[in-house]
């Protein structure tokens, strides 16, 4: 899920969000991995500035590598291709578009005060 | 207005309601389902453990129907046409449909109700199994059938040491014979599962807290397990029908006629709870057909259900298993390869011409190619069909059933392709439903598409309608330097893992600076992005360049020290250099700092680029040698290092015709002659080995280099993505490439040479350039919010005095 606008209620402490890096640290069309409460979360910034967060584990190989895949689109849907064997996952739903029986978790992600934050909830 | 009431909300009920709503049923529909959630895709149940949520699996509920959950129907008053639920709710009906499915059979063994015993049928079951697996180390599945193996795979995915206990003499006795079962067992044991066949269960035992601790076999052996899953078959849920006096089979199942009507004309029954013509069906395909027949009858039609195909094809634990048609016959032909674990058997009539059925383990190709021939004359000798997988130009008759789940024939698919102008499998799925249930017929759909003359597009991917060669020309001629510009002006969408690396390679071949600069960085696949080769556990390997395979003792010592200090596994590669394995991303710059300081540079093992130029020791030392093969190899490797190309490039130089460097297996290979050098091109190892063709003889060193410059640049300009020189050369024709490169028939040779000169002049070591630039270095962390933290999923264990990755357990992956 994406929250594109700056968070206007940044002053009101809301729990559950973890800061992972500055928005400017993210390279467009590329991912990074964040470690939040022991969960590996792949965070992507797309060409239009959108943010997406999914599990970093590639369910086909078991390796924690999805953040290092190539970002793109498939019929408008933003995607990442696993760097292991190239299965393509939707950044929106986490579903593997090549094998819809398989999917990875998605997480909420937002920008607050210039920082990227993710929520496990 | 007719009041329709449906009991049970599983896949079959879902299909019934969907069909009725689609077809404009005018009455009211009320569904009473016992589970706490609406109908979901039970076939995909296991994916609930591998990331799917309950919502993902749940079917849509059409508007306008009434759905009551947690509503188990306990009685039918057929006289006054009212059903009653467990909590006392009553629902009157005009037409009643029973779609109560089946329940797992739990054999009456002592201890079957202990804490820790489960069945595998509903989302709630899986929640309970997942919960129980948290503190557990081992699990056992009772039943080695399809579902048992699927459940075993799921337990393995939950991290349990898993055993399967099968009463029969071998695994999957319903689908395969004894020989196939033995091969299947080999596959499954190789995955680390314990298999116990011909073994019953004496009792299930518990510890002091009443929790399961293990299973005792009749022979007294105890299998330790904290989780026990029963998967010993299913039984139709006919209890409601039975108590309301409807006819049920002696061994279970609600008796119906061809129109799905029970012994009470106001009541239909569909799905797994049904007994039709003496058969109970445990598969969604026939259940869906029943739902459609019942819907048709309710709407006043004449639809009829006929005995359904029971063929099976699945991939469980990575092993393909398939069964189709009969499981015996007058004659049978078996193909078995114990090395690869393939077992295939065809049953044929006594004249060996009519196919009756077949069994496959390890490779289900015959299922795909031969199943439609069941009951028909075979297109060839059975043994030949098994060995070759069947001729690819085999003509299927039009009435042959291609998709058995949705009962679609080849004729229906062909007319859909012709009438609707379909061009891809997705289109066929949408129009005919073929391939939408279990998916095993999708390979055949592709074949039918190709045969129906649908032109296979040269488009690189959905984003570019151009081939790689066309894109190369666009980029070169228009002087485009960014992917964004290219896709905005000449493509659609935002690219993918196919077109992005292709364009990155084109930009690099044309010399556009460091591959990690600016927008180019985002185009690279992970190997190029981290300038290292990703390995199966997500670590990387490091390969410094060792031109010509020549290396000083001091440099060898540095490699050894680096490997030792970072705990890397070392292996001599086939390309006469050394690969260091097991580096985490954050270690890569530290490792390369040491290597670059000692005078090493990137070996581009990660890139579609020049890999190595191997050499034999040549005339300097060898008593047969006629030229200095090492000197030439070093010079060539330094000239073409870093050259990005459509695919990797390999080369070798031999010092005489004895060819110790195996140059004729390379993209460009050189063999010394008394007069100079012979150049060979288009060689390959790999999947399809090919000896290189002689391209030019007795060249001087200068002539040789000029020829290779032209040859490589022409290849880079015109080859398809990921097309090695061998295939490219065969497509272009050796004579044509000779004309272009040796006789300059296109008048482009000066341009090709100039392009190579620009590459040589512009070369800089990619790793040194990274180490010198903080911005490029920033990406080398495992975690953006914890740069010093190593990835906790990566671990090693010892093997032969070095390390090897501890593999991460894999959950079930359906395919
Ligand atoms: C793990 C697993 C994997 C499978 N894989 C495949 C596969 O790959 N391919 C394939 O073809 N088939 C597969 N199957 C079989 C397939 O799921 C079934 O054929 C299908 O679910 C049958 O649908 P149904 O609606 O007839 O019955 P069910 O799915 O059993 O649905 C019946 C529903 O009715 C409810 N119900 C029962 N009695 C009452 C009552 N008295 N009052 C109210 N509600 C009631 C039940 O709670 C249940 O929700 C698989 C099954 C499982 C468990
Ligand atoms: C990926 C594909 C499939 C999978 C994973 C699968 C899995 C299963 C499972 C788990 C069962 C439960 C019963 C048991 O333990 O034996 C089952 C039963 C059955 N399947 Fe499949 N199935 C698949 C495809 C098919 C297809 C395409 C057919 C035929 C059209 C088929 C035929 C059967 C039959 C006849 C049964 C009944 C067995 C019984 O009576 O218990 N299967 N299948
Ligand atoms: S190819 Fe000729 S020169 Fe090279 S090592 Fe073999 S025999 Fe010696």
TrEMBL record, chain A:
GO molecular function, one term: nitrite reductase [NAD(P)H] activity
Keywords annotated in UniProt: 2Fe-2S, Iron, Iron-sulfur, Metal-binding, Nitrate assimilation, Oxidoreductase
One of the GO BP terms on file: nitrate assimilation
Domain Rieske: 18-118
Pfam families given in the database record: Rieske_2 (PF13806)
Iron-sulfur in keyword set: yes
PROSITE patterns per UniProt: NIRD, RIESKE
Signal peptide: none
Entry keyword Iron: yes
Entry-linked NCBIfam families: nirD_assim_sml (TIGR02378)
PANTHER family: NITRITE REDUCTASE (NADH) SMALL SUBUNIT (PTHR40562:SF1), PTHR40562
Protein name: Nitrite reductase small subunit
Lineage of producing organism: Bacteria, Bacillati, Actinomycetota, Actinomycetes, Streptosporangiales
TrEMBL record, chain B:
Pfam families named among the record's database cross-references: Fer2_BFD, NIR_SIR, NIR_SIR_ferr, Pyr_redox_2
Top class in the EC scheme: oxidoreductase
CDD domains in the cross-refs: NirB_Fer2_BFD-like_1, NirB_Fer2_BFD-like_2
Metabolic or biological pathway: Nitrogen metabolism; nitrate reduction (assimilation)
Highest taxon, organism lineage: Bacteria
EC id: 1.8.7.1
Domain FAD/NAD(P)-binding: 3-274
Keyword Heme on entry: yes
Co-factor: note: Binds 1 siroheme per subunit. Binds 1 [4Fe-4S] cluster per subunit.
GO MF terms held by the record: 2 iron, 2 sulfur cluster binding; 4 iron, 4 sulfur cluster binding; flavin adenine dinucleotide binding; heme binding; metal ion binding; NADP binding; nitrite reductase activity; sulfite reductase (ferredoxin) activity
Keyword Iron: yes
The entry's keywords: 2Fe-2S, 4Fe-4S, FAD, Flavoprotein, Heme, Iron, Iron-sulfur, Metal-binding, Nitrate assimilation, Oxidoreductase, Thioether bond
Domain BFD-like [2Fe-2S]-binding per the UniProt entry, residue ranges: 402-450
Chain positions recorded as [4Fe-4S] cluster binding sites: 616, 622, 656, 660
Residues that hold siroheme according to the record: 660
Catalytic reactions on record: hydrogen sulfide + 6 oxidized [2Fe-2S]-[ferredoxin] + 3 H2O = sulfite + 6 reduced [2Fe-2S]-[ferredoxin] + 7 H(+)
Cofactor: siroheme; [4Fe-4S] cluster; [2Fe-2S] cluster; FAD
GO BP annotations, alphabetical order: energy derivation by oxidation of organic compounds; nitrate assimilation
Coiled coil: none
Nitrite/Sulfite reductase ferredoxin-like domain span: 535-596
Known role: Catalyzes the reduction of sulfite to sulfide, a step in the biosynthesis of sulfur-containing amino acids and cofactors.
Quaternary data: Homodimer which associates with NirD.
Membership in a protein family: Belongs to the nitrite and sulfite reductase 4Fe-4S domain family.
Protein's name in the database: assimilatory sulfite reductase (ferredoxin)
Species whose genome carries this gene: Planobispora rosea
Protein encoded by which gene: nasB
């Amino acid at each position: 899920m994406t929250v594109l606008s700056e968070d206007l209620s940044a002053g009101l402490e809301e729990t559950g969000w973890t800061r992972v890096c500055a928005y400017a640290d993210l390279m467009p069309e590329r991912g990074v991995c964040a470690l939040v409460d022991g969960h590996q979360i792949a965070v992507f910034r797309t060409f239009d500035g959108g943010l997406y967060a999914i599990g970093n584990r590639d369910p086909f190989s078991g390796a924690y590598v999805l953040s290092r895949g190539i970002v793109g689109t498939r019929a408008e849907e933003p995607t990442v291709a696993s760097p292991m064997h190239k299965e393509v996952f939707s950044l929106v739903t986490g579903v593997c578009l090549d094998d819809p029986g398989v999917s990875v978790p998605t997480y909420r992600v937002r920008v607050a005060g210039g920082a990227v934050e993710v929520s496990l909830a | 207005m007719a009041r329709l009431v449906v009991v049970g909300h599983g896949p079959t009920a879902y299909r019934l309601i969907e069909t009725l709503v689609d077809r404009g049923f005018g009455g009211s529909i009320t569904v009473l389902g016992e589970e706490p959630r609406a109908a979901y895709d039970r076939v995909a149940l296991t994916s609930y453990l591998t990331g799917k949520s309950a919502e993902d699996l749940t079917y849509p509920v059409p508007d306008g129907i009434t759905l009551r959950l947690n509503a188990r129907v306990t009685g039918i008053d057929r006289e006054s046409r009212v059903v009653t639920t467990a909590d006392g709710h009553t629902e009157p009906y005009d037409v009643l449909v029973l779609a109560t499915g089946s329940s797992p059979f739990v054999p009456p063994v002592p201890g079957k109700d202990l804490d820790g015993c489960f069945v595998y049928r509903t989302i709630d079951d899986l929640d309970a199994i997942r919960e129980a697996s948290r503190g557990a180390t081992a699990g056992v599945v009772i039943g080695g059938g399809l579902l048992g193996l699927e459940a075993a795979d799921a337990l393995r995915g939950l991290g349990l040491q898993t055993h399967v206990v099968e009463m029969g003499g071998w695994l999957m006795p319903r689908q395969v014979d004894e020989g196939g079962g033995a091969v299947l067992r080999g596959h499954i044991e190789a995955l680390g599962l314990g298999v116990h066949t011909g073994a019953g269960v004496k009792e299930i035992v518990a510890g002091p807290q009443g929790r399961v601790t293990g299973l005792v076999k009749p022979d007294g052996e105890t299998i330790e397990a904290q989780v026990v899953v029963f998967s010993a078959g299913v039984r139709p849920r006919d209890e409601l029908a039975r108590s309301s006096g409807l006819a049920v089979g002696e061994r279970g199942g609600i008796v119906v006629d061809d129109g799905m009507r029970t012994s009470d004309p106001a009541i239909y029954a569909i799905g797994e709870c049904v007994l039709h013509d003496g058969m109970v069906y445990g598969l969604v395909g026939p259940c869906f057909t029943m739902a459609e027949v019942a819907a048709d009858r309710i709407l006043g039609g004449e639809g009829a259900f006929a005995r359904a195909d029971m063929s099976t094809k699945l991939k469980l634990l990575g092993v393909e298993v398939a069964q189709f048609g009969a499981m015996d016959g007058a004659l049978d032909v078996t193909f078995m390869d114990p090395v690869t674990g393939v077992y295939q058997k065809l049953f044929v009539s006594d004249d060996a011409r009519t196919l009756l059925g077949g069994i496959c383990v390890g490779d289900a190709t015959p299922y795909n190619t031969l199943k439609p021939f069941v009951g028909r004359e075979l297109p060839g000798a059975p043994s030949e069909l098994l060995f070759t997988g069947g001729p690819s130009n085999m003509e299927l008759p039009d009435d042959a059933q291609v998709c058995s789940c949705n009962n679609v024939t080849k004729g229906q698919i062909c007319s859909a392709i012709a009438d609707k102008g379909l061009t891809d499998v997705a289109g066929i799925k949408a129009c005919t439903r073929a391939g939408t249930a279990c998916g095993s017929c999708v390979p055949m759909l592709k074949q039918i598409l190709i045969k129906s003359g649908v032109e296979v597009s040269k488009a690189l991917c959905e984003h570019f309608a151009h081939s790689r060669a066309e894109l190369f020309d666009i980029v070169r001629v228009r002087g485009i330097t960014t992917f964004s510009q290219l896709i905005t002006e000449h493509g659609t969408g935002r690219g993918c893992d196919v077109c992005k690396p292709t364009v990155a390679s084109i930009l690099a071949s044309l010399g556009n600076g460091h591959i990690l600069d600016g927008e180019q960085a985002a185009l690279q696949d992970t190997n190029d992005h981290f300038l290292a080769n990703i390995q199966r556990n997500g670590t990387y390997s490091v390969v410094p360049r060792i031109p010509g395979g020549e290396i000083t003792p001091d440099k060898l010592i540095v490699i050894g020290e680096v490997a030792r200090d970072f705990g890397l596994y070392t292996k001599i590669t086939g390309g006469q250099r050394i690969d260091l394995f097991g580096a985490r991303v954050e270690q890569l710059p530290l490792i390369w700092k040491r290597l670059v300081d000692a005078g090493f540079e990137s070996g581009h093992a990660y890139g579609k680029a020049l890999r190595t130029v191997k050499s034999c020791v040549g005339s300097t030392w060898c008593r047969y040698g006629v030229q200095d093969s090492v000197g030439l190899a070093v010079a060539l490797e330094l000239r073409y290092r870093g050259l990005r190309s459509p695919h990797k490039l390999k080369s070798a130089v031999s010092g005489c015709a004895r060819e110790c460097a195996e140059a004729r297996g390379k993209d460009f290979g050189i063999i010394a002659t008394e007069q100079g050098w012979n150049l060979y091109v288009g060689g390959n190892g790999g999947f399809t080995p090919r000896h290189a063709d002689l391209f030019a003889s007795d060249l001087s060193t200068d002539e040789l280099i000029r020829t290779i410059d032209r040859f490589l640049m022409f290849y880079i300009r015109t080859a398809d993505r990921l097309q090695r020189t061998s295939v490219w050369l065969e497509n272009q024709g050796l004579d044509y490439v000779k004309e272009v490169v040796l006789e300059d028939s296109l008048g482009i040779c000066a341009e090709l040479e100039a392009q190579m000169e620009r590459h040589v002049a512009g070369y800089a070591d990619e790793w040194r350039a990274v180490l010198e630039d903080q911005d490029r270095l920033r990406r080398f962390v495992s975690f953006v919010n914890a740069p010093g933290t190593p990835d906790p999923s990566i671990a090693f264990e010892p093997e032969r005095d070095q390390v090897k990755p501890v593999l991460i357990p894999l959950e079930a992956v359906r395919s």
